Amino acid sequence: MVIEPRSGWSALNLIELWRYRDLLVTLAIRDVKLRYKQTALGVIWVILQPLLAAGIFTFVFGTVAKMPSEGLPYFVFSYAGLLAWNAFNSTLTKASASVVGNAQLVSKVFFPRLILPLSTVLSTLIDFVVALALMVILMVVYGITPGWGVLLLPLSLVLLIALALGIGVYTSALTVRYRDLQYVLPVLLQMLLYASPVAYSVSAVPDRLRPLYFLNPISGLLEAFRWSLLGRGQLDWTYVVYSATWVVVVSFGGAFAFKKMEQKFADLI
Fold this sequence. Notes:
Layout: H1 14-19, H2 21-35, H3 44-64, H4 74-96, H5 98-101, H6 103-108, H7 115-118, H8 121-141, H9 153-177, H10 181-194, H11 210-213, H12 217-230, H13 237-261, H14 265-268
Helix pairs in contact: 2-8, 3-4, 4-8, 4-9, 4-10, 4-12, 9-12, 9-13, 12-13
């Protein structure tokens, strides 16, 4: 077999990714096992982390700042936002570190490198399902009944993860050359957290600033996710379509940039 660089649409080589699907599954399962290896609480951390964050947001934004919560208990409102945010944040963070974290594999074995960031999605989905189970319990306790919009919840989740993965694929390639990105990314994500409707409602943003606020593509997806889950608030399809367009652009752009930089991974890593 002769390994040659590809160009254009053929550079993505989706057929090759399918050929190595067993490796993708193996790496995904390994990522899940390593995530909670040698931890005393194990999967409980998946629930404990958003619970603590939701408690802090409830005190700061709900009690002190008295932000609106669409008529819902602020704890449930903020937990729903964190449920979506953590899926985005976890995918982006793990995908960004996936290439550097597998340096020995990259430098010695041939396989489609794009498999590395893709393999991080399984652990994100498992975390999401566990945290969603607690969300369902909270909704039952507080008597919150979702509407028909809950059928769109998987779509909102897929778009969020696809956006995170598109960015993560690109940053994973950049991290090979610029290791400082490992320290810059958490800071940027922390800023993005407060610039997105996670801990507060979009209704708290002044009307004149909302068009500017929704330039952040994750804002429309987070709002759509919470609307689908809790059935409260208003869903503006214009912003959802805008965010979905960004998902497509970022996904393909990130994949092409990754394939272009992939040729030098073994030399730099």
